[in-house]
Amino acid sequence: MPPFQPRSSPLPALLQRLLVRARGLLAWLWAQEGSHGQRARGLAAGIFCGCFPFFGLQTLLGVALASLVRGNHLLAAAGTWISNPLTYVPLYWFNYRLGSWLIGPSKDWPGMGALRAESLSELGWSVASRLLIGSTLMGLVASAVGGGCFWLWLERQQGRQGS
After folding, report:
1. Is 130 exposed, middle or buried (0-12, 13-18, 19+ CB in 10 A)?
2. For a tag site, which of 44, 54, 67, 136 has the least CB within 10 Å?
3. How does pLDDT run across 31-54, given as a tens digit for each residue?
4. How many CA atoms lie within 13 A of 148 on its CB side?
Protein backbone atom coordinates (compact mmCIF):
# COMPACT_ATOMS: atom_id res chain seq x y z
CA MET A 1 0.00 0.00 0.00
CA PRO A 2 1.46 3.42 -0.96
CA PRO A 3 2.23 5.92 1.80
CA PHE A 4 -0.35 8.54 2.60
CA GLN A 5 -0.25 11.41 0.15
CA PRO A 6 -2.51 14.38 0.80
CA ARG A 7 -4.46 15.73 -2.09
CA SER A 8 -3.10 18.93 -3.48
CA SER A 9 -5.14 21.87 -2.33
CA PRO A 10 -6.54 24.27 -4.93
CA LEU A 11 -5.68 27.13 -2.56
CA PRO A 12 -2.08 27.73 -3.73
CA ALA A 13 -3.18 27.92 -7.37
CA LEU A 14 -5.97 30.29 -6.38
CA LEU A 15 -3.51 32.49 -4.45
CA GLN A 16 -1.17 32.58 -7.42
CA ARG A 17 -3.99 33.68 -9.73
CA LEU A 18 -5.04 36.35 -7.24
CA LEU A 19 -1.46 37.64 -6.99
CA VAL A 20 -1.15 37.81 -10.78
CA ARG A 21 -4.41 39.75 -10.99
CA ALA A 22 -3.39 42.02 -8.14
CA ARG A 23 -0.09 42.81 -9.88
CA GLY A 24 -1.97 43.60 -13.08
CA LEU A 25 -4.37 45.84 -11.19
CA LEU A 26 -1.50 47.66 -9.48
CA ALA A 27 0.27 48.15 -12.82
CA TRP A 28 -2.94 49.53 -14.30
CA LEU A 29 -3.46 51.87 -11.34
CA TRP A 30 0.16 53.03 -11.51
CA ALA A 31 -0.24 53.97 -15.16
CA GLN A 32 -3.26 56.20 -14.54
CA GLU A 33 -3.10 59.97 -14.98
CA GLY A 34 0.24 59.68 -16.68
CA SER A 35 2.83 62.42 -16.51
CA HIS A 36 5.51 62.56 -13.87
CA GLY A 37 4.32 66.00 -12.86
CA GLN A 38 0.76 64.78 -12.30
CA ARG A 39 1.98 61.89 -10.19
CA ALA A 40 4.29 64.06 -8.11
CA ARG A 41 1.59 66.72 -7.60
CA GLY A 42 -0.87 64.05 -6.50
CA LEU A 43 1.54 62.58 -3.97
CA ALA A 44 2.44 66.06 -2.70
CA ALA A 45 -1.25 66.94 -2.27
CA GLY A 46 -1.79 63.78 -0.25
CA ILE A 47 1.24 64.39 1.94
CA PHE A 48 0.11 67.96 2.59
CA CYS A 49 -3.36 66.86 3.69
CA GLY A 50 -1.93 63.97 5.70
CA CYS A 51 -0.14 66.43 7.97
CA PHE A 52 -3.43 67.77 9.33
CA PRO A 53 -5.39 66.18 12.19
CA PHE A 54 -8.62 65.88 10.21
CA PHE A 55 -9.25 62.21 10.94
CA GLY A 56 -11.54 60.63 8.37
CA LEU A 57 -11.31 63.57 5.98
CA GLN A 58 -7.64 63.48 5.01
CA THR A 59 -8.15 61.21 1.99
CA LEU A 60 -11.11 63.23 0.71
CA LEU A 61 -9.20 66.48 1.17
CA GLY A 62 -6.11 65.00 -0.51
CA VAL A 63 -8.09 63.88 -3.56
CA ALA A 64 -9.88 67.24 -3.74
CA LEU A 65 -6.57 69.11 -3.55
CA ALA A 66 -5.11 66.79 -6.21
CA SER A 67 -8.04 67.72 -8.45
CA LEU A 68 -7.24 71.41 -7.97
CA VAL A 69 -3.56 70.96 -8.83
CA ARG A 70 -4.28 68.38 -11.56
CA GLY A 71 -2.53 65.59 -9.71
CA ASN A 72 -2.93 61.82 -9.57
CA HIS A 73 -5.88 61.00 -7.30
CA LEU A 74 -4.67 57.56 -6.27
CA LEU A 75 -1.26 58.83 -5.23
CA ALA A 76 -2.96 61.66 -3.34
CA ALA A 77 -4.96 59.11 -1.36
CA ALA A 78 -1.80 57.11 -0.68
CA GLY A 79 0.12 60.23 0.36
CA THR A 80 -2.28 60.85 3.23
CA TRP A 81 -1.03 57.63 4.83
CA ILE A 82 1.96 59.48 6.29
CA SER A 83 -0.36 59.99 9.24
CA ASN A 84 -1.45 56.62 10.52
CA PRO A 85 -1.90 55.06 13.95
CA LEU A 86 1.87 54.69 14.30
CA THR A 87 2.71 58.29 13.39
CA TYR A 88 -0.25 60.30 14.78
CA VAL A 89 1.28 61.15 18.14
CA PRO A 90 4.81 62.11 17.00
CA LEU A 91 3.58 63.98 13.91
CA TYR A 92 0.96 66.06 15.69
CA TRP A 93 3.18 66.65 18.72
CA PHE A 94 5.89 67.98 16.38
CA ASN A 95 3.34 70.10 14.48
CA TYR A 96 2.08 71.55 17.77
CA ARG A 97 5.63 72.32 18.89
CA LEU A 98 6.42 73.93 15.54
CA GLY A 99 3.27 76.07 15.77
CA SER A 100 4.18 77.06 19.33
CA TRP A 101 7.64 78.08 18.16
CA LEU A 102 6.13 80.23 15.38
CA ILE A 103 3.29 81.83 17.31
CA GLY A 104 4.98 82.03 20.68
CA PRO A 105 4.64 80.43 24.07
CA SER A 106 1.27 79.20 25.16
CA LYS A 107 -0.29 76.97 27.69
CA ASP A 108 1.28 73.56 27.40
CA TRP A 109 -0.34 70.63 25.69
CA PRO A 110 -3.25 69.71 27.96
CA GLY A 111 -2.42 66.83 30.28
CA MET A 112 -4.84 64.38 31.82
CA GLY A 113 -5.47 66.72 34.74
CA ALA A 114 -6.58 69.49 32.38
CA LEU A 115 -9.29 67.42 30.71
CA ARG A 116 -12.18 69.19 32.38
CA ALA A 117 -14.90 71.06 30.52
CA GLU A 118 -13.74 74.49 31.67
CA SER A 119 -10.08 73.75 30.90
CA LEU A 120 -10.83 72.44 27.41
CA SER A 121 -12.76 75.57 26.54
CA GLU A 122 -9.81 77.70 27.67
CA LEU A 123 -7.12 75.57 26.02
CA GLY A 124 -9.05 74.73 22.85
CA TRP A 125 -8.10 77.58 20.52
CA SER A 126 -4.64 77.95 22.01
CA VAL A 127 -3.81 74.33 21.18
CA ALA A 128 -5.74 74.14 17.88
CA SER A 129 -4.21 77.31 16.43
CA ARG A 130 -0.67 76.13 17.11
CA LEU A 131 -1.42 72.66 15.78
CA LEU A 132 -2.94 74.03 12.56
CA ILE A 133 -0.13 76.53 11.97
CA GLY A 134 2.48 73.83 12.59
CA SER A 135 0.59 71.37 10.38
CA THR A 136 0.44 73.90 7.56
CA LEU A 137 4.17 74.61 7.65
CA MET A 138 5.07 70.94 8.07
CA GLY A 139 2.69 70.02 5.24
CA LEU A 140 4.23 72.58 2.90
CA VAL A 141 7.76 71.40 3.58
CA ALA A 142 6.98 67.66 3.58
CA SER A 143 4.87 67.86 0.41
CA ALA A 144 7.53 69.87 -1.44
CA VAL A 145 10.27 67.45 -0.42
CA GLY A 146 8.16 64.31 -0.99
CA GLY A 147 6.71 65.43 -4.32
CA GLY A 148 10.06 66.74 -5.55
CA CYS A 149 11.95 63.58 -4.63
CA PHE A 150 9.24 61.44 -6.23
CA TRP A 151 9.41 63.48 -9.44
CA LEU A 152 13.20 63.14 -9.53
CA TRP A 153 12.91 59.39 -8.96
CA LEU A 154 10.37 59.06 -11.80
CA GLU A 155 12.65 61.04 -14.12
CA ARG A 156 15.62 58.86 -13.19
CA GLN A 157 13.60 55.67 -13.75
CA GLN A 158 12.55 56.89 -17.19
CA GLY A 159 16.17 57.72 -18.03
CA ARG A 160 17.25 54.20 -17.06
CA GLN A 161 14.54 52.62 -19.17
CA GLY A 162 15.40 54.79 -22.15
CA SER A 163 19.08 53.87 -22.20
Report:
1. buried
2. 67
3. 666 789 999 999 999 999 999 988
4. 6
